[in-house]
Amino acid sequence: MSGPVLVSRQGVVATLTLNRPDALNTLDFAMMDSLVAAVADVAADDALRAVILRGAGKHFMAGGDLRTFAGELTKARAARQAGFTQMIGRLHSAIELLQRMPHPVVARVHGAVAGFGLSLVAACDLAIAADSAYFASAYRQIALTPDGGMSWTLPRIVGLRKATEILLLGERFDAQQAMQLGLVNRVVPVLALDATVEGVVQALVTGPTLALRNAKRLLYQSSAHSLSEQLDAESRSFGECAGTADFEEGIAAFLEKRPPQFGRGSTP
Which is the catalytic residue, given 28, 65, 125, 147? Predict the structure, then answer.
């Protein structure tokens, strides 16, 4: 298979693969368009239960393709400014869809994670990293500010003071530090990465679909809500989930002292 972003499906799981391994999966213009289309594709597929985002080869993503960016230097500054503004605005639809899609998105992280690659990891719902992974914002080195929602997600994950340090100093940090900061959920040896991601994904796809989708939505909408609004949203979601076959199965499994088998009945 070829293309800058690959989409594959296995049952109720879709995998998005950043596929420019010889260029550390850096973003060029073709990959930007392909990523937006691929994320839109899986976001619209209601049959999915989980999405994996990964990089081909030895790295997750090392940010933007600076050789591609260098080709824009021949343009007048005003034209260059307008072009990059439009390009990044288009790319940002992928970030919005990652967080708005109902399915949980799991980042499989290894190698370099820099620039927009770090933004992608922060935009995913869960992230599993190899112990050899390393991270950097990388924007200050080329006199740019963050994109991909990093200025929104990063302070919410690591706190404002640490996010400021990451962006203003641009220092590299390792996978263990990323886990301590909350940027990744687990760090494992690289040889255990695929099995660990598979275990997390299986926990998601065998879970109660509506409850997990609603939980994701509740979490992401909470920062825009007052406490009263969020309590109301929780009440409505709780009631909606209580009306499903999965809720009936969960209660029955508890009473019968057995693991629940979700998804076997008709769930609205």
Answer: 147
